[in-house]
Design goal:
This protein is mainly β. 0% of the residues lie in helices and 37% in strands. It has no helices and 12 strands. Strands 4-5-6-11 form a 4-stranded antiparallel sheet, with no helix packed on it. Strand 9 (100-102) and strand 10 form a beta hairpin. The two termini are 15 Å apart.
Length: 134
């Protein structure tokens, strides 16, 4: 994903070859600590722009992308999650059952005594983001 003043996501590499970048939005369309959903083919992605705040350490001002599907509720709502940090690592809390995920790795940090729905993996898929033209 480039945030070319646009957030673009690479479409996953597969047998057909390497990933390609897809344009998502202007960086100015992303409000700090608020999520936005983008659709790439049939894949929903949640984009998060972090504020220029020391609490986010080396991640301050960056844009992160994860799957929009909440594996615990089965709903496409991660872009509505609550952005925060855990020991300087940016996180998002799912809006339905409040599981906390790393925006860097996608790992579920707090499962809140729930299990993922219908055999979905507990961790989120993350996507690389590139900011261009700023």
């Amino acid at each position: 994903m480039t945030v070319n003043d646009v957030a673009e996501a690479p479409v996953a590499a597969g047998p057909a070859g390497p990933a390609r970048w897809e344009r998502a939005c202007l960086v100015s369309d992303l409000f700090p600590e608020r999520g936005a959903a983008a659709l790439f083919g049939d894949v929903q992605v949640a984009l998060f722009r972090l504020p220029d705040d020391a609490a986010y350490g080396g991640h301050a001002g960056r844009v992160h992308a994860v799957q929009n599907l909440d594996p615990f509720s089965g709903a496409h709502v991660m872009s509505r999650g609550i952005v925060g940090t855990r020991a300087g690592e940016p996180t998002v809390a799912a809006p339905v059952y409040k599981q906390v995920f790393s925006l860097v790795t996608g790992v579920c940090l707090v499962a809140a005594d729930k299990t993922p729905k219908d055999g979905l993996p507990a961790d989120l898929v993350t996507y690389p983001v590139e900011v261009r033209g700023t």
